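Quiz preparation item.
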């Protein structure tokens, strides 16, 4: 019976199922390879000090413990997390505020040199960040903003503004211009059109730009370690590096702090991922 039932399935359909199974197996393998460092770090963060010293190391903790996480909070990691949260929020707000204005002007106002401006934005995104540290250090020193969250927020906004402009520019081009014509007929100025018509329809674009920006601001180490020196303005990545120097090769606190640093990013992504589902502008203009 099984052989006869299999014979009734067309050959093309059996091949299609085989290709589907192969693709799924490859996707699962890639996902496991990509997630293995995270899963290993998560497992390590719950191991006791004696388990961390075992060789070969064990995959799962035999006696899970929260001692490494407790140690982090005893050393004040929440202060560094708060600094990173403040910087991330300030950078996102600055990039979206200025980026939306610039992107709207480039998408809707045709002016001489607009194409060159687009090329300049692409060029700015390709400049290696370490090459900008010396001039920006001098700039902040002259402003008296070294070793401050304000100075870091200004630098992060300047570094990520081209990316925000580029993402929003592409999204604004997808919004039907007829909506703006209708707003202008109703007496809206360009700024009012942007604020009351374009931005409410640009949720996915704003979220995409914001995620690019917040990922950089949350994970940056190079700029933060170069521009700050006091413990009061230390960010989470710099604090994690400090734990490496303070605890030597004790991997428990390091992996625990790394896991803690991923939680806010995951929460933000889960909270805003629904905005990526498209179609916010579909049906906005009747034919």
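Solution:
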């Amino acid at each position: 019976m099984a052989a006869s039932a299999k014979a009734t399935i067309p050959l093309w359909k059996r091949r299609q199922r085989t290709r589907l199974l192969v693709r799924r197996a490859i996707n699962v393998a890639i996902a496991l390879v990509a997630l293995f460092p995270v899963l290993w770090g998560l497992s390590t963060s719950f191991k006791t000090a004696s388990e961390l010293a075992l060789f070969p190391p064990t995959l799962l903790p035999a006696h899970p413990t929260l001692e490494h996480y407790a140690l982090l909070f005893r050393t004040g990691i929440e202060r560094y997390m708060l600094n990173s949260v403040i910087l991330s929020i300030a950078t996102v707000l600055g990039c979206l505020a200025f980026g939306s204005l610039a992107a709207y002007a480039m998408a809707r106002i045709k002016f001489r040199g607009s194409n060159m401006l687009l090329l300049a934005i692409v060029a700015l995104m390709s400049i290696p960040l370490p090459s900008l540290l010396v001039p920006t250090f001098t700039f902040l020193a002259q402003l008296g903003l070294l070793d401050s969250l304000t100075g870091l927020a200004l630098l992060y906004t300047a570094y990520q503004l081209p990316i925000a402009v580029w993402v929003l520019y592409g999204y604004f081009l997808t919004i039907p211009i007829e909506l703006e014509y209708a707003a202008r007929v109703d007496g809206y100025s360009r700024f009012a059109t942007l604020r009351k018509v374009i931005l409410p329809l640009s949720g996915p674009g704003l979220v995409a730009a914001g995620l690019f920006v917040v990922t950089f601001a949350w994970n940056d180490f190079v700029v933060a370690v170069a521009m700050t020196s006091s413990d009061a303005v230390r960010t989470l990545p710099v604090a994690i590096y400090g734990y490496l120097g303070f605890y030597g090769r004790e991997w428990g606190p390091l992996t625990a702090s790394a896991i803690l640093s991923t939680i806010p990013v995951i929460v933000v992504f889960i909270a805003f991922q629904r905005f990526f589902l498209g179609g916010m502008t579909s049906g906005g203009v009747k034919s």
